[in-house]
Amino acid sequence: MTAGHDAELRAMRRAIELARRGPATGANPQVGCVLLSPAGEPLAEGWHRGAGTAHAEVDALAKLPAGAAHGATAVVTLEPCNHTGRTGPCAVALVEAGVARVVYAVADPGRASSGGAERLRAAGVEVEHGLLSDEVEAAIGDWLFAARARRPRVTVKWASSLDGRAAAADGTSQWITGPTARADVHRRRAAADAIAVGTGTVIADDPALTARDADGALLAHQPVPVVFGRRAVPAGAALRRHPHQLLQYDGPELAATLEDLATRGIRSLFVEGGPTLASAFLAADLADELLVYLAPTLLGGPGLALGELGVPTISAAPRFTFSAVERLGDDVLLVAHRAAPTTPTEGN
Description:
This is Riboflavin biosynthesis protein RibD. It comes from Agromyces soli. Pathway: Cofactor biosynthesis; riboflavin biosynthesis; 5-amino-6-(D-ribitylamino)uracil from GTP: step 2/4; Cofactor biosynthesis; riboflavin biosynthesis; 5-amino-6-(D-ribitylamino)uracil from GTP: step 3/4. The chain has 348 residues and is α/β, with parallel strands linked by helices. It contains 10 helices and 13 strands. Strand 4, helix 4 and strand 5 form a beta-alpha-beta unit. Helix 3 packs parallel to helix 4. The N and C termini lie far apart (47 Å).
């Protein structure tokens, strides 16, 4: 490795650290930037603090006197944007500041915001991409997924007995799993932009759909509550007291609903409510991640965790890949992700 590459590698690792200071949820990605002198020494650094605030590159440039960035290298976790929204194009800001080289990890997949690299090259700026891209992809995975797929990343969660029941024969379901598993659920709620249930669950269980600590206090971030179904949410329902305004969709078209949620800045959806809604997302092939909390008990009876999925034969069954198995107190969490489609092989 050359000294210049080493300096850029260190700068990218620092930019990733800086990016994590920004909001982990919401419509905008976490982005960090480090400006290096022509000799490879750090000049300034910045990060994006949320919608409406300066982007990371502009934040870093603002910390330098006029002309101090001439000939510098900008190391950025995400491709500099190329559009005017609440702020101007970062690609233009870098050009006007006299930056000579830009190194970024991941290309911006946004329809309106992409193209910054091309604009920089057209202005004579040297551009390189891909440095530590795997680390950045992992760090802003939900935002990247939503930008590429034009819908939120969907996690479907359920808790069940070992024999796949989510409720006993009399309909009771609280609590199948223990406190450690329930605490894990609340932690994951807090990491999501929105949480969804069906109206059947609202009426039967009156859930609050908030993220809480072990003492019942609200965590700092709360997911937006989303309800699917035509029945009205009762006026006195706990959801009516949620910190965020309730969103309700009564249509059966899940794909269109997800597109609408994406326009509202929702990039991750935590589907938690009931076998009907969970089965609908699975049947529509819209579940990207599964969280299955298994309790060491048996219930029998009709209270299955999932309903009809429209699978006519074993060869048509949707496939997932296990990515984690965790022991949570007496319970076990299985984490699975949508499996990549298999490619038929040639020959016999």
